[in-house]
Amino acid sequence: MIGPYVSLSAGMAPGQTLIADDIVTIGDRCVVGRNSSIVGHLHIDIGADVFFGPNVYVTDQNHTAEDSTLPIGRQAAPELPVQIGAGSWIGTNAVILPGVTIGRHAIIGAGSVVTDDVPAGAVAVGSPARVLER
Predict the structure, then answer these.
(1) Domain boundaries, the chain
(2) Is the pLDDT of residue 16 over 90?
(3) Rounded mean pLDDT of 72-96?
(4) Contact between residue 96 and residue 84 where contact means Cβ atoms under 8 Å apart
(5) Which of 4, 39, 66, 69 is the most exposed place for a label (fewest CB within 10 A)?
(6) What pLDDT does 66 receive?
(7) Fold (topology level) of 1-134
């Protein structure tokens, strides 16, 4: 189920040559909460039975500020794939950043910013997200 006002993006612009065959994959029986955004440039894999609360943001691409003469929006960091394991729960307003793997049946607390991998069955909360229990 894809909620209202969800944004799904594969690539950066219409007509762009994509850098992978499967940019965004979403497994069976997933729920993507309203106002969520999934922005894929390389690869985002969401396993089966994953539930997103509202306003979740997932991306495999970010920007850098290495060159002070260029606008940050024109400075792309390397794309890093994202994987969200089957049966996981991603709470309201969570942000999943490039290069993160979230294991099966993990819980990401509301408002968390996930910058590192989360093991299967773990509960991670905070900004940046930290594992509370396994």
Answers:
(1) 1-134
(2) no
(3) 95
(4) yes
(5) 69
(6) 92
(7) UDP N-Acetylglucosamine Acyltransferase; domain 1 (2.160.10)
